[in-house]
Amino acid sequence: MNHSAARQAHAAAQFGVGCLHLVPGEEPGHQDKVSVWLAQLSDVLGGLAGISDVETWFNASEDGADPALATLVPWFGRERPADSGSNELGVQFHLTVDRTLLDTLGPLYRGFARFPREIDVRITYIRDTPVVLAWTREDHGEATGTTVLDIARRHLALQLEGTGVVLDVLEPTPFPADFRVFERAEGTDADQLVSVNVETRPGFDLVDMEVDAHGAFDAIFDHVLYQVALEADDYYSVELAVDRAELRWDAIMDKFNGFIASQRGRRTPFRGNGSVEIRDLMLGLIETKAAILAERHDLLEQVEKARASDVGVLSEYIVERFGRFPDFPFDEYTRMLEFLEGRRAHRSDAVIALVSALIGGLVGSLYVLFGGY
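Above: the chain sequence. Below: its structure as tokens.
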């Protein structure tokens, strides 16, 4: 579908994508069984203004399994990773929006000009990340997918205050694109069930999808949401890997800067345990580099899958984000430490030579002195 045609047609649905979920605000709650937590979450959500039709689900990969929440669910605020594996876990609810609700939210990304009144929200755990999808079946003639998710996120954050449940968010949320789904006109020739057209724009891109519904739009739309959730998990897996890499880099840089600061205050730097500290720093750099390279390697399968996809909704974004994976200057810092170690070793050799000369001179003098008797 070309964009002029898209603007003339009415979107059958619009949605926004992000990475957030609802977790207990305190550590002990994360040790509760998943079934206990979902029951608590359902009660809390059911008591919030504007929210209805709350549904939670947990289909364990092993019959009868009911693990602790912390084993399946990450906690971004505490840098805790988790992998939901093949367990199916999620929550969905409906949000009814009115002007009174909007007035409590503060400024939105797109303002209040045309806001959706009926929003559905689904949070589902794919593998590494919780993917949130928020959609509306209303169409205002313009893209509102990010506004839909923005409203849901802000409303939840306000309503959950004091409940013991908090939003745990990985940015960027909303994902920087508006998603619209159009129903393809009957008799239109198309090679694919779902065609995707991405328009790059300042702020938020526009991603239009055209589908062959054949009178069953709900089913095909649910398929689109599922596919986007899978790809969003791949995208946010890259974001998580970047976060972990930057944390590792920051940790080794703190040690490096601490070592330099400690040496700066000494009258004779790089003496005593200087060689041991330099060695430990060099080993730390090697370990950090190895860990980051391993993470990059683990991501390659997901990135290559996106690169090879001809119908992926987020494929371009996954490949592009991986291409911006930080390139940390490990070699430069290693060379600096090698230089410092060389200076230290050179100084030590000079001291040894000086002491040897002094001792040799002293021995010679004593020999001459006592050799005369």
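The first strand starts at residue 13 and ends at 24.
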